[in-house]
């Protein structure tokens, strides 16, 4: 409980350490990613697993809800991000293109695109519906650890192990 600091619930079920966390937009669910190569959707009141997302072949490092809560994204060391239906657990799309594992992800302000960061020293912008890569942000000399969108969605910011942050045009990747 945020007000009292008391533990409300323990979510148990992953077989390896938990590596990614996200609250649903309505705060009724929590999404967890794990070294066990899965993600799980939990009911925060009961602590029960509602949906189990299986399909990655390596650890799940990052998890996100779409702002409407209808889909979730999982980013993995298997070099892919996957889009899933929150209710059914059905895999809707696989975002493939990175040549090394994914570290983190973020949504564009309009929720139609997702930006992924990777150990391959790049960030990539994807269309959620089609799964197609829109732009490649290439130039860092180290792992891309963090990504962000400008509030208008026209620019992208990347932060890297190379001790730089870079500002890019979201449409062109320049």
Describe the structure.
The protein is mainly beta and about 170 residues long. It is built from no helices and 15 strands.
Provide the structure class.
Answer: mainly beta
Give the rounded overall mean pLDDT. 95
Task: Tell me, briefly, the overall form.
Answer: globular
Total number of helices? 0
Q: Which percent bin holds the helix content?
A: under 10%
End-to-end gap: 44 Å
How many β-strands, per DSSP? 15
**Rg calc:** 16 Å
Low-confidence stretches: none
Order of helices and strands: EEEEEEEEEEEEEEE
Order of strands across the widest beta sheet? 1-2-3-4
Give the amount of beta strand, in percent.
over 45%
Biggest beta sheet summary: 4 strands, antiparallel
What characteristics describe this protein?
single chain; 174 residues; mainly beta; 4-stranded antiparallel β-sheet; 51% strand; globular
Lay out the secondary structure.
Layout (H helix, E strand, L loop, with lengths): L17 E6 L5 E6 L3 E6 L5 E6 L5 E6 L5 E6 L3 E6 L5 E6 L5 E6 L5 E6 L3 E6 L5 E6 L5 E6 L5 E6 L4 E5 L5
Antiparallel strand pairs: 1-2, 2-3, 3-4, 5-6, 6-7, 7-8, 9-10, 10-11, 11-12, 13-14, 14-15
Provide a compact summary of the structure:
The chain has 174 residues and is an all-beta fold. It contains no helices and 15 strands.
């Amino acid at each position: 409980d945020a007000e009292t600091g008391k533990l409300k619930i323990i979510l148990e079920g992953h077989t390896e350490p938990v590596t990614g966390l996200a609250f649903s937009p309505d705060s009724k669910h929590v999404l967890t990613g794990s070294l066990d190569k899965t993600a799980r959707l939990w009911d925060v009141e009961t602590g029960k697993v509602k949906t189990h997302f299986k399909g990655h072949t390596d650890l799940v490092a990052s998890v996100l809800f779409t702002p409407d809560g209808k889909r979730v994204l999982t980013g993995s060391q298997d070099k892919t991000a996957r889009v899933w239906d929150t209710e059914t657990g059905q895999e809707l799309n696989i975002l493939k293109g990175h040549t090394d594992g994914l570290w983190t992800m973020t949504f564009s302000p309009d929720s139609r695109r997702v930006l992924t960061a990777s150990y391959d020293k790049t960030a990539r912008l994807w269309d959620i519906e089609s799964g197609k890569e829109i732009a490649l942000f290439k130039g860092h000399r180290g792992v891309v650890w963090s990504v962000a969108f400008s509030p208008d969605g026209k620019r992208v910011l990347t932060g890297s192990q190379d001790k730089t942050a870079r500002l890019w045009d979201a449409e062109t990747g320049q």
